[in-house]
Specification:
Elements (H helix, E strand, L loop, with lengths): L1 E2 L8 E2 L7 E5 L2 H10 L1 E2 L7 H5 L5 E8 L7 E11 L5 E2 L9 E7 L5 E2 L24 E4 L1 H12 L2
Protein name: UPF0310 protein SAMN04489812_1310
Organism: Microlunatus soli
InterPro entries: EVE_domain, PUA-like_sf, UPF0310
Length: 156
């Protein structure tokens, strides 16, 4: 590990070669719970996509709605962080529900509406049907898209 030289003192950047950049599609209320608890879940608590993530990967959160399942439309990027553990683990939310999670070191962010960014994001191939990509929940993006989103969300 090396100490990150950015003004955000106390954050760590993990060196393992190239990072992968992820987008996780999650309602804002669930993103806020994750930020408060330092974790992310994906695909309604399923482990598959979380197993593909590695320590040091970056994850950006897109929130189509304010709340799940019946919130108001939001359509904004709502958080950003770095995977800070070595693998998924289960947590008990109720006796019947034990979702898989990954630990995330979140950065201080502002919400950023997606519409002004659509034409600048390469991962949105069909700009007229820009929401299609988010239907898959978790997916990877390129470094240039991540850099744009990080700058918009954090000012860095």
């Amino acid at each position: 590990m090396i100490k990150n030289g950015t003004p955000n003192v106390g954050r760590w950047t993990y060196c393992r070669g190239m990072s992968t950049y992820w987008v996780n599609t999650v309602s804002r209320d669930h993103v806020r719970r994750g930020v408060e608890g330092g974790f992310t879940q994906a695909n309604h608590g399923k482990p598959w996509m979380l197993r593909k993530m590695e320590r040091g990967d970056w994850i950006v959160f897109y929130s189509p709605k304010t709340d799940y399942p019946d919130g108001k439309p939001l359509q904004a990027f709502t958080a950003l962080g770095q995977i800070s553990d070595d693998g998924p683990y289960q947590a008990e939310m109720t006796p019947e529900f034990h979702p898989w999670r990954r630990n995330v070191a979140f950065e201080t962010c502002v919400e950023v509406p997606i519409r002004p960014l659509i034409d600048r994001l390469d991962f949105i191939e069909d700009k007229s049907r820009w929401g299609y990509r988010f239907r898959f929940g978790v997916f990877t993006i390129g470094e240039s898209d991540f850099s744009l989103l990080r700058h918009e969300l954090t000012g860095r």
